[in-house]
Amino acid sequence: MAQVQILSRNQQIVLDIIEKAKGPLKAYSILFNVQKKGINAPQQIYRALDKLIEMGKIHKIESKNAFVACRSSDCEISKATAFSICESCEMVDEISDTKLSKYLSGFNHKKGMKFKRFNLEFFGICKKCKKD
Amino acid sequence: MAQVQILSRNQQIVLDIIEKAKGPLKAYSILFNVQKKGINAPQQIYRALDKLIEMGKIHKIESKNAFVACRSSDCEISKATAFSICESCEMVDEISDTKLSKYLSGFNHKKGMKFKRFNLEFFGICKKCKKD
DNA sequence: ATAACAAACGTTATATTATAACACAATGTT
DNA sequence: AACATTGTGTTATAATATAACGTTTGTTAT
Ligand SMILES: [Zn+2]
Ligand SMILES: [Zn+2]
Ligand SMILES: [Zn+2]
Ligand SMILES: [Zn+2]
């Protein structure tokens, strides 16, 4: 039974912006977008981002220092994330593939290290950009 | 027949430092380490890093904004990289697993995007840290 | 060898991303 | 009430990365 997460004011504001966005958003671009709502400082953004990531509501695209809303219900609270990234238009798509996720979650390092979490980023040119 | 890459002076200096290091190095820590050799500006470091990455001599650990030397001869010039990262001691180990690499290189997005490159980062606690 | 080009260099300045530190308010627990 | 926990607002600063400019060095072609 999934507990409904109650978000704080700032967390909700930041999440709303990220969910409405078509692509990944950078922290400072979020900041500029919420200054009309009384949020003035980077700290306020980064604090909200940190919590939203913990909750699995958003993910950080490490190669871009940008943030996207989680669209897949089964990504196990950010323990197993995979993205497809277009190097031309910057589009990011969360990959929700049970086989891939299981394969990687079960992968064990030869040197005996047990993994708790992984992040996978694929790069290429998306269909839309190929046409151009 | 693998062409022997000739590195420029700055590229060689930066690569030497990264190869000697036990773990991932940050750009500015490299900079501080080479100031005695007459390199004074971040640009000089970042330019060398960019070229070394292109050549596949080093890799960037995106989640840490840090750089490691490539230890695996078959990582296809940074087209297919995988790392194991200890969240306690920050150790990074390049994963060289043919099956994993083949599996991911052959992975195709449902939405028809063809991938050219991927980067995978696993996180956990390494053997050494578990003992403590 | 010399002209033309490309790659690397050095330098200054600036942009971008992220955290430290402190005081206060709201909320929940014992 | 006392206490811990979480969130807030604010100022300042740290850490990461790039822009722009002119010079130097190395390579290639004639
Ligand atoms: Zn997700
Ligand atoms: Zn695209
Ligand atoms: Zn490698
Ligand atoms: Zn460790």
Give the oligomer, counting copies of the same chain as homo and different chains as hetero: homodimer
Biggest sheet: strand arrangement of chain A: 4-3-5
Number of strands of chain A: 5
Percent of residues in helices of chain A: 25-40%
CATH-assigned homologous superfamily of chain A: Winged helix-like DNA-binding domain superfamily/Winged helix DNA-binding domain
Number of domains of chain A: 1
Q: What CATH architecture of chain A do you see?
A: Orthogonal Bundle
What's the CATH topology label of chain A? Arc Repressor Mutant, subunit A
Could you describe the largest sheet of chain A, including whether it forms a barrel?
A: 3 strands, mixed
Largest interface: A-B, 31 and 31 residues
Ions, cofactors and other bound molecules: zinc ion
**Silhouette of chain A:** globular
The ordered string of helix (H) and strand (E) elements of chain A is HHHEEEEHEH
Low-pLDDT regions of chain A: none
Portion of residues in beta strands of chain A equals: 15-25%
Averaged pLDDT of chain A: 92
Note the main attributes of this structure.
homodimer; 5 helices; binds zinc ion; two-stranded antiparallel ribbon; Arc Repressor Mutant, subunit A; DNA-binding; three-stranded mixed sheet
Report on the architecture of this protein.
The structure is a homodimer of 132-residue chains. Chain A has 132 residues and is α+β, with helices and mostly antiparallel strands. Helix content of chain A is 36%, strand content 23%. Chain A has one domain: Orthogonal Bundle (Arc Repressor Mutant, subunit A), CATH 1.10.10.10. The first copy, chain A, is built from five helices and five strands. In chain A, the strands form two sheets. In chain A, strands 4-3-5 form a three-stranded mixed β-sheet. The first copy, chain A, is globular and about 50 Å long. The model of chain A has no long low-confidence stretch (mean pLDDT 92). At the A-B interface, α4 and β5 of A face α4 and β5 of B. Chain B binds a DNA duplex (30 and 30 nucleotides) through residues 8-11, 26-28, 38-44, 46-48, 51, 65.
